[in-house]
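During the no-cost extension, the postdoctoral fellow (Dr. R.K.) reprocessed legacy sequence entries with the updated structure-token encoder. One reprocessed record is reproduced below for audit purposes.
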Amino acid sequence: MRVVDINEMKEIEKIAIEEYGFTESLIIENVGTRGADFIEESILNELDYVGEIVLLVGRGNNAADGLAISRNLVNRGYRVRAFILFPDDEQSSEEQQRQVHLAKSYGVRINEVKNINQVQSYFEETQDSYIVIDAVLGTGFKLPLSQYLFELFNCVNNSKSITVAIDIPSGITANIGAKSSVAIRADFTLAIGLPKTGHYIDEGARHSGQVLTLDVGFPQALLSGGDKALLTPEIIGGSFGPRNKFAHKNSFGHTLVVGGSPGLTGACIMASASALKVGSGLVTAATWKDSYYELTGRSLPEVMTGLIPSNAKDKESIISELDRYDAVVIGPGLGVNEVTRGIVIELLSQFAGPVVVDADAIKVLDLTRDAELLHTRKYPTIFTPHMGEFAKFTGTSVDEVLQRPIDYLKEVVDRTNSCFIMKGPCSFLGFPNGNVFINYYPNDGMATGGSGDVLAGILGGLLAQNPLDRTKSGMFMDKSRLYQAICLGIGAHTIAGKIAADKYGVRAMTATSIIEHLSDAFQELNEEDIY
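Re-encoded structure tokens follow.
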């Protein structure tokens, strides 16, 4: 599903009105019907009892949307009380005034708020369970927040209620998900037409709850396209053609995993096991000489082993045999020093195939020093940094990246001609073709050592099964299947993590729990149709 910023959404609405004959009133009426449908079917029908639905009415079309929803709910037999927060506002729109009149006519209890104590007293004294509908600010909100709304939002957040935000939680900016002091913490956010970037960035991701999209009748021709989209099962799905049941192990690729310094061989082992579990025909794990026996003592028997050269004259190593491999993962537990940097640079320069650059391999690179090498590399490069690694690589701060992750992502993808997966509770995938995918599935069980190594191995194993025509230069190489394989890897990792969390709980699951449930993840993705 496409994700838009505010300017893109305004353009969609403008075209819908000017070329398709929509009106603001029609859009608001559609929001009213579809919003009431959701609240009734997904919330009210699931509760044993709800005393009253509380609507917080602010300004503009967001307020009008909330009033339209409340009117529809009253018409279905529910009790709704609306608090008009700015009753003397001379700037209220004609549509908002019309919706207030309609709401009164239908029986919505209207309370004009003269003092925040009125709302506070209601929440403190009301014993019934209730639902709060947030229709205060909407997507047009700009920082900072007034003291009046600061007190109101704290009051709402401290109440024991289910909160539904219309379009975006009040106090959150719709483009970058920022807040100045406090914002409504929603359990559900009903995005009108399309999700907004602010739902998934910074504080927006923490306050939006479950984001659902209201289809308010915009033509599909206006909702498709764009350069940003949610990563969905439909996108993840048809990534690979069917596997040949009569093929042999060499048909499904050979993945090389380079990593594992003394005491850190587990990272290399988990990446190697993950590559096997996603179907790579062969996997080799290579490590330094002084950690080789540690690696071989812990590794799976199916994984072959090799050595990383300790100096430029050492030819008895994996670097001298790169033609054997179809994909390389470098970095898990590799160590951070100048020798490591030399190995990473050499492999990127010499290997004629996709390289997944992870963990320590990212830490020894630098955007300023290495942009030219990366941009001119003929074969795909896939970086998998978390926010801290991304910030260090680009020479920015984590706070700066968190505020504008998509902008920074696009910039670094353009400068390096590489794929970037910016990992986090909400992950951002940037491809050189200009597309950005958002993988929004927060799972604190995956905030555990090794989960990133597992992802790197998954990507390497899938890419090895998807060999590129190495006779062609990067300019003429068809990378569509490469991008599909990356999306599949992210999806499989996410779903396996979800299954592991459901089985063990988020506290008890580990990175190896993700590996154990990769087969279940592929079943959820209809593996029989994918492979």
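The two ends are 24 Å apart (CA to CA). The longest helix spans residues 480-504. The remaining legacy entries will be reprocessed before the final report is submitted.
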